[in-house]
Amino acid sequence: MDAAVFLDTPISRLQGISPERVQLIQKEMEVFTYGDLLQYFPFRYEDRSRIYTISELHESQAGVTLRGIISDIRVAGGGRSQRLVARFSDSSGDIELVWFQGINWISKNISAGGEYLIFGKPQQFGRKFSISHPELEKIQDGKMPASRQHPLMAVYPMTEAMRRRRMDHKAISGMVKQVLQLGERSIPEFLPPAVMQQHRLMSRAEAYRHVHVPSDLLKLEEARRRLKFEELFLLQLRIFRLRGVQQRSVQGIPFPHIGAFFNDFYAHRLPFRLTEAQKQVLREIRKDLGSGRQMNRLLQGDVGSGKTIVALMSMLMALDNDCQAALMAPTEILAYQHYESICDMLGDMNVEVRLLTGSTTKKAREEILEGLAGGRVQILIGTHALLESDVRFHRLGLVVIDEQHRFGVAQRSKLWEKGNPVPHVMVMTATPIPRTLAMTAYGDLDHSVINELPQGRKPIRTVHRYDHERAGFMQFIKEEIAKGRQVYFVFPLIEESPKLELKNLMDGHDMVSSWFPIPQYQIGIVHGRMKAAEKDAEMMRFKKGITQIMVATTVIEVGVNVPNASVMVIEDADRFGLSQLHQLRGRVGRGSEQSYCILTSKAELSANARRRLQTMCSTNDGFEIARVDMELRGPGDLEGTRQSGLLDLKLSDLIKDEPLLMQARDTAAQLMQADPDLQKPEHAALLQLLFSRQGRTVWSRVL
Ligand code: ADP
Ligand code: MG
Questions:
Q1: pLDDT of 491
Q2: According to the model, what pLDDT value does residue 697 have?
Q3: From the CA of 304, how far away is ligand 1's center (Å)?
């Protein structure tokens, strides 16, 4: 049979599977073809080589194998409680086996006096054990059944509906075995021979066999390595191909000049000396913008590393080439803050900057839209409001998106539609992304990293304090305020209930006020349910130092810049995720003063929460924190990647399999260099696979 056709065979062709079961498999397992079935991988394996005796049973065992004789088979009860019961005994005792369903079938297929291996979960009734619906295997003439030569039994992902309809691991295993028997030789290899040799990989057919029906641990490991390699290799190939296509076909707006805007700013307006990292990133951006192809760059820089000025200077390059630029931020406060600091930095330079958010008045909005369409407005800063369809530019050359993890990919592509040709895009994120994730989730973007903080910053000191230690740290905070510093108190978001959240925050406010009484202390408050204008007014009062203490929810999480604030208290810190804690902490330590972060919690902590707080206390390094975060939560859970469907990896783990990922990536890079269009005969199978259904599912993102 034609190889590709074999894997595309619908599962309904399998022997002994009812149409209902086919439907169940399609719906619950999303398995439609032989190929899909082979890719329905076990998530763990049970060692069935150990055979227990009845005297060793206890109720906590999840599943045990016993060897013994079945006898006294009889039907008990009647009507709805009818069941089939049998005695099962070995030399150490006896138990009861019970079946509530399939009574006819079972009674026909078991024989009294026969020797069996059974597998199931023991349950205790009084002093006797019983196992309901055990798996059974007949022992013929004292010989172990064939399946026992594969003691590692695959355990597959199961949904509740599958369990209800009595679909078990053995059934799946049976189908897989059938497929392998029918056409193991029809499973095509697509990895080029050179790649197989270089990494000593087993064939695809062999890998499928050993991953489903492992003969021993070593083979299983080899099979998993082969399949993971394949997964990562294909992913990397697709990324490289996508980038190749992008580079060749998406024309960028060429920015050949560095002109008056950039030069004037650089020579006369720089508020500080750029760090080496900032300079380096600007060089990379300059190179991209001059290249004639469209820039797609991810700029990563830890909290406080100074990304805003890099964004501004990049936008000035656009202006120097008669283009407009846009800067999009996830919240109004942030957009406003960017607007303010950019206007501030530009001073009396002749640049038209506008702010457009959801709360821009109708009249102002009209004026802005007109100015944009006519080309008079040069830099537009704003929120999602920039995405609305009536926002049209005269000639949009560069879009900067701040704090990317708050925006979806779809929103990113919406902005691209605003320019023709497509504008250059720079995405800035303060959530450091571990290298492996960056290479996959953002693999279609070029990367720049600001890996150094401006000079003179003192590392933030972070401590964990329990509630009962409050008197001590409140006294410390009073001393800081006496020195002229300012303080944040942040309370957790309560997602299930905005009402409860508000109450929690108000209680928090009362608690803080009881330690810091008016009029000696002024306390501000911001939360997500306030109107943007109110929020801004409160932030402004804090920024100007009218209030010394800001009580807030996580609305202040990203980007807010008040350099005089030197203490961040995060209440119930165990309820925050690591990256969020890091972002919040980043609100202090922005000036030259020593800053502090105090994480509070109740006395009892889960192991996971303890690890998060310990990590925060032991490091300020955003990359290290991101790494631990990914380890604790798993990559699929990182903000911004969950919805994208990008990391649909079936077997690989981006942290644990980093070495394999690097190998796959190098190999993919070499291959693309040698044969960019995969035209060589030894790459034909690979090319075909990249465009097949299996190929497409992993890579679902649009350009
Ligand atoms: P982030 O990367 O978190 O967006 P910002 O751009 O808000 O950081 O910068 C944080 C603070 O550091 C701002 O007050 C900014 O003016 C200041 N800053 C940025 N670059 C430098 C530098 N090279 N030297 C000194 N201060 C800088
Ligand atoms: Mg920022």
A1: 92
A2: 34
A3: 5
Beta bridge partners of 117: 67, 137
* Residue 275 alpha carbon, nearest atom of ligand 1: 23
Q: CATH number for the domain including 359? A: 3.40.50.300
449 part of a folded domain: no
In a domain, 10, yes or no: no
**Per-residue model confidence (pLDDT) at position 637:** 47
Treating both helix axes as pointing N-terminal to C-terminal, what angle do 332-346 and 532-543 enclose, rounded to 10 degrees? 50
Identify the H or E element spanning 12.
Answer: none
Tens of pLDDT, residue by residue over 53-80, are 999 998 878 788 899 999 999 998 888 7
Task: Tell me what pLDDT residue 642 has.
Answer: 36
Q: What are phi and psi of 570, to 5 degrees?
A: -110, 110
For 201-245, give the DSSP string: PPPHHHHHHHHHS-SSHHHHHHHHHHHHHHHHHHHHHHHHHHHHH
Closest ligand 1 atom to residue 310 Cα is: 6
In terms of domains, do 420 and 466 share one? no
Rounded Cα gap, residues 646 and 205, in angstroms: 26
> Closest by alpha carbon to 575, among 612, 629, 603?
612
Query: What pLDDT shows up at residue 473?
Result: 96
CA distance linking residue 545 with residue 504, whole number of Å: 25
- What is the 8-class DSSP label of residue 33? B
Ligand 2 centroid to Cα of residue 559, in Å, is: 4
Residues of the chain where predicted confidence (pLDDT) is lower than 50: 636-646, 694-703
Look at residue 442 and give its three-state secondary structure: coil
Number of H helices, E strands in the chain: 25, 23
Domain span at residue 63 reads: 50-150
